[in-house]
Amino acid sequence: MNEKQLSERLVRVAKYVPKGAKVADIGSDHAYLPCYLCIKDIELTAIAGEVNEGPYQSARKQVEKSGLTERIDVRKGNGLEVINCGEVNTITIAGMGGGLITTILNEGKDKLEGVETLILQPNVSADIIRKWLLHNEWVLVSEEILEEDEKIYEVLVAKRGNDESLYEEQKEQKFLLGPFLMQEVNHAFKKKWQYEVDNWKRILAQFEKANANEQVEEKRKNLLNQINMVEEVLRK
After folding, report:
1. How far apart are alpha carbons 39 and 17 in whole angstroms?
2. Taking the model in full, what pTM does it have?
3. Angle CA(50)–CA(51)–CA(52) in degrees, nearest 5?
4. How far apart are the C-alpha atoms of 231 and 219, rounded to whole Å?
5. Which one, out of 125, 172, 183, 195, has a CA that is 20 to 30 A from the CA of 54?
6. How far apart are the C-alpha atoms of 230 and 236, rounded to whole Å?
7. Whether 101 contacts 93, CB under 8 Å
8. Contact between 76 and 56 (Cβ < 8 Å)
9. What 3-state DSSP class applies to 131?
10. pLDDT tens sequence across 29-77
């Protein structure tokens, strides 16, 4: 992977970045994504944020090597503290868990003023992000799920607004599976959720052997509910 040849998951992230955007890529690592975006779009500018010294230095070298120091500002800092209010209109956060992504967004809420688009690529726990978006006045407008190098990734895109209507029905199911992804049910979706169902069934079998108590029974009911929700969609 380099600034001209991204991984497929980052290509999917990049395609949702609006033309001419002012982008902050949080956890930018080598700054491949900002460099790629600037090469593809001569009007785009970017901030590459990185909290750790090693990746920060790698990002600086990559931006210099690409001749993009005038358009990409590499900054060291934690989460959204690398940006100022109104400085960007698009934020990308890729390659982290859903819990960490929502923590970054929560801790930097004051920096989201003027931001119009969030493009988030969690490695796990996308449901946490969907809930956060709903409760923080963001509309989920698009989702993708893909497999790359035997790992499955999701991409979530959100705009300003309220998406209560999106979750009027099947709320719990949509949080877990993704309201757009469960309509498509592609190969990556099936593979991910069949694996999860098989794992939950193994856990369920262990519960059957355990001494019954209120806590075990509650966990058993929750697992059964999740299995039923997923299998209902997988049967489509």
Report:
1. 13
2. 0.94
3. 100
4. 18
5. 125
6. 10
7. yes
8. yes
9. helix
10. 999 999 999 999 999 999 999 999 999 999 999 999 999 999 999 999 9
Q: Measured between alpha carbons, how far is 65 from 166 in angstroms, rounded to an integer?
A: 44
Rounded to whole angstroms, the Cα distance separating 154 from 212 reads 37
User: Which residues on adjacent β-strands are paired with residue 143?
Assistant: 156
Report, in angstroms and rounded to the nearest whole number, the Rg of the chain calculated over CA atoms: 20
Length of the chain measured in residues: 236
* Amino acid of residue 82: V
Tokens 């593979």 sit at which residue?
191
Strand residue runs (E) in 51-100 = 72-76, 90-96
Is-contact 140 157, C-beta < 8 A? yes
Neighbours of 117 (CB within 10 A): 20
* Tokens 């979530």 found at: 156
Rounded Cα distance, 158 and 137, in Å? 10
Q: What kind and span of H or E run contains 138?
A: strand 138-148
State whether residue 95 is helix, strand or coil.
strand
Q: Name which of 116-130, 205-219, 220-234 the model is least confident about.
A: 205-219
Query: Which residue matches tokens 């994504």?
Result: 33
Token output for 141: 């407008």
